[in-house]
């Protein structure tokens, strides 16, 4: 007899569904539809055989009450959304159909951030006051690293954006501070002078890290190692890592960080020569990206000497090779190290390798050097997009580029700037500025942009166009100035002429007119000057001056 419950969320899924339990096992499928316009992915139907069930617990959850089921292969299944009244019927159903006892689990609500950790069968449990505060399933742990001397960082594995079925924010990292006590090894008595090696003291944080890695099988994969390459130089993230190839994933092992990356995370592969003509680079674009603390690495950049030859035979049995790898990778290789590694990535991931395009710079190279802010970079114009190799590489499809602006071409510098305008993302359109591009590359780049139908805006051409228009406007203005204008042939009479007219008209009327003219002059030059002379010489002189001006 089967039992069904509706409105249940499976592993924090975006939509709810129904759960059915029978003697054969447990199953869940989504029944709620996504809202219109949502690009989320709905969780696929899930079936769990009765033989895989290990234990079940009941506790409060995000959608009311939660049932957690632990499986024999180490997984933890969460079913959230039960009502409180469902406890009795669910307990009977699990007991009768699946032979499981539903245990009641009570979480700590004190809010403390200190407690004790326990490494149980399927998960890491953090206890506060002898009650669980939270758990981290081992299957959800991507990697663990010791940070400093007393911190252990646990990174949570996240699916790619296209495969996410959960809603809202997600935890990506949890850090545990472990007191920096040193765990002393067991004393070996009576072995002084013997050949017995005494273990060195171990840091408490390092011991917790090692135990968690061993318990969670972090870094281990099913199947044997196909090939290994030691001390490969990575420019992004910076360091040397050992690369180990397995059937479903590859492992990066460094001094501090250890990653296990599924081949399905590889989105693109680029194999290109460096501008120094001494090395080749192999670039992997990942989704989801790797993380080191708060830093995300969507690109891995490996560097190989161009003339480094390698001969290797894969560690694969003949029957396994014929079953899984024949037609994908070779049985043995004798080529450059970059060619061997890129061939393995291509065959195991199923992604094609993108190589250099027909673009050639003035130095006959497939890229041009530039700067992004203060960092050196190389711009590779490829067949379908731009690849910018720098400390933080970027790949831009031509379909995402709305325009390219070339600036500082009219100056006396030997370089110019390129600005790539991208399609609107969110509320604003973004731009990528590439500085200090050699002016010798300008005509070659413009020709390549035209071949890809990319809109180009040349500031120098715009300036020349504006200057020519200005010169034409100035020339037209000069022609207008040279035309005749009769309105400005005669000058208006001056004030002095008007004054002389008035004085001349009153000169024949007697001394009274002369006196008035003299008083007016006194008002202009000052009364003291007239009193000191005692005669009319000054007034007569003024009249004479006015008469001369009038004539």
From TrEMBL:
It comes from the Eukaryota. GO terms for molecular function: DNA binding; histone binding; nucleosome binding. Residues 365-459 form the Histone chaperone RTT106/FACT complex subunit SPT16-like middle domain. SUPFAM superfamilies: PH domain-like. Signal peptide: none annotated. Pfam families: PH1_SSRP1-like (PF21103), POB3_N (PF17292), Rttp106-like_middle (PF08512), SSrecog (PF03531). One of its GO terms (cellular component) is FACT complex. Residues 461-470 have a biased composition (Basic and acidic residues). Keywords: Chromosome, DNA damage, DNA repair, DNA replication, Nucleus, Transcription, Transcription regulation. Belongs to the SSRP1 family. Component of the FACT complex, a general chromatin factor that acts to reorganize nucleosomes. The FACT complex is involved in multiple processes that require DNA as a template such as mRNA elongation, DNA replication and DNA repair. During transcription elongation the FACT complex acts as a histone chaperone that both destabilizes and restores nucleosomal structure. This is FACT complex subunit POB3.
């Amino acid at each position: 007899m089967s039992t069904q419950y509706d409105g249940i969320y499976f592993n924090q899924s975006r939509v709810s569904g129904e759960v059915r339990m029978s003697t054969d096992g447990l199953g869940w499928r989504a029944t709620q539809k996504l809202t219109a316009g949502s690009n989320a992915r709905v969780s696929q139907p899930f079936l769990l055989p009765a033989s895989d069930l290990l234990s079940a617990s009941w506790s409060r959850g995000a959608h009311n009450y939660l049932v957690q089921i632990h499986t024999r292969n180490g997984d933890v299944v969460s079913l959230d959304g039960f009502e409180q009244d469902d406890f009795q019927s669910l307990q009977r159903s699990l007991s009768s159909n699946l032979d499981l006892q539903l245990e009641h689990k009570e979480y700590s609500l004190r809010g403390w951030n200190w407690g004790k950790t326990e490494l149980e069968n399927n998960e890491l449990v953090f206890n506060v006051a002898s009650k669980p505060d939270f758990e981290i399933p081992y299957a959800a742990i991507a990697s663990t690293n010791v940070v400093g001397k007393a911190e252990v960082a646990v990174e949570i594995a996240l699916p790619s954006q296209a495969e996410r079925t959960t809603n809202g924010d997600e935890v990506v990292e949890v850090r545990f501070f472990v007191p920096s006590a040193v765990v002393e090894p067991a004393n070996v008595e009576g072995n002084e002078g013997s050949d017995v090696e005494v273990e060195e003291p171990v840091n408490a944080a390092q011991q917790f890290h090692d135990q968690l890695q061993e318990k969670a099988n972090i870094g281990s994969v099913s199947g044997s190692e196909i090939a290994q390459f030691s001390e490969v130089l990575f420019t992004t993230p910076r360091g040397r890592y050992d690369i180990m190839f397995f059937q479903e994933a590859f492992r990066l092992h460094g001094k501090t960080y250890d990653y296990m990356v599924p081949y399905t995370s590889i989105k693109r592969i680029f194999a290109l020569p460096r501008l120094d003509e001494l090395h080749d680079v192999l670039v992997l674009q990942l989704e989801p990206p790797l993380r080191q603390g708060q830093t995300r690495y969507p690109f891995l950049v490996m560097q190989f000497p161009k003339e480094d030859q390698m001969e290797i035979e894969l560690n694969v049995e003949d029957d396994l090779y014929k079953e899984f790898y024949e037609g994908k990778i070779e049985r043995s290789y004798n080529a450059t190290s970059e060619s061997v590694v890129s061939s393995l990535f291509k065959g195991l991931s199923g992604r094609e390798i993108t190589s250099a395009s027909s673009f050639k710079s003035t130095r006959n190279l497939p890229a041009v050097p530039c700067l992004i802010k203060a960092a050196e970079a190389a711009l590779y114009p490829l067949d379908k997009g731009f690849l910018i190799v720098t400390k933080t590489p970027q790949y831009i499809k031509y379909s995402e580029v709305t325009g390219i602006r070339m600036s500082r071409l009219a100056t006396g510098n030997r370089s110019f700037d390129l600005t790539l305008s991208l399609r609107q993302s969110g509320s604003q359109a973004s731009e990528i500025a590439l500085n200090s591009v050699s002016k010798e590359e300008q005509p070659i780049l413009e020709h390549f942009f035209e071949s890809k139908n990319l809109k180009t805006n040349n500031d120098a051409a715009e300036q020349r166009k504006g200057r020519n228009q200005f010169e034409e406007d100035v020339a037209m203005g000069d022609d207008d100035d040279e035309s005749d204008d009769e309105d400005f042939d005669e000058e208006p009479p001056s004030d002095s002429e008007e004054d002389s007219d008035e004085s001349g008209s009153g000169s024949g009327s007697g001394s009274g007119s002369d006196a008035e003219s003299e008083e007016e002059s006194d008002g202009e030059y000052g009364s003291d000057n007239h009193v000191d002379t005692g005669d009319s010489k000054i007034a007569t002189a003024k009249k004479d001056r006015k008469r001369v001006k009038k004539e």
